[in-house]
Amino acid sequence: MVQIQKLEEQQKTAEGLVRKSTEAVQKADVLFKYNSATYVEVILTQTNKLQEELDLASLKAQRLNAITTLYRSVGGGWQ
Q: Which of 2, 8, 16, 41 is paired with 52 by a 20 to 30 Å CA distance?
């Protein structure tokens, strides 16, 4: 149960990071549109966003695996 709670907290944090990186990508696009940023900066912000999304997906998978393990440990599931 503790592991599931910790993963939920980490997931909430990761969701916040994804939101912030989405905003950063949008701002970088606007800056690029008005020649205030280079395309490399846009690509870097997109790369950071992708990494945050991958981290979030990994945390979600870990949480689901922990829930499944808990369910099986209390006698649920098929043998």
A: 2
pLDDT by residue (tens digit) across 26-74?
999 999 999 999 999 999 999 999 999 999 999 999 999 999 999 988 8
Residue type, 78: W
Contacts of 67 (CB under 8 A, 6+ apart): 4
Please give the model's pTM, rounded to 2 decimal places. 0.86
Name the nearest CA neighbour of 46 among 17, 16, 26, 19: 26
Two tokens at 54? Answer: 């991958």
Longest dimension (CA), the chain: 62
Helices and strands: H and E segment counts in the chain: 2, 0
Gap between the Cα atoms of 78 and 55, Å rounded: 31
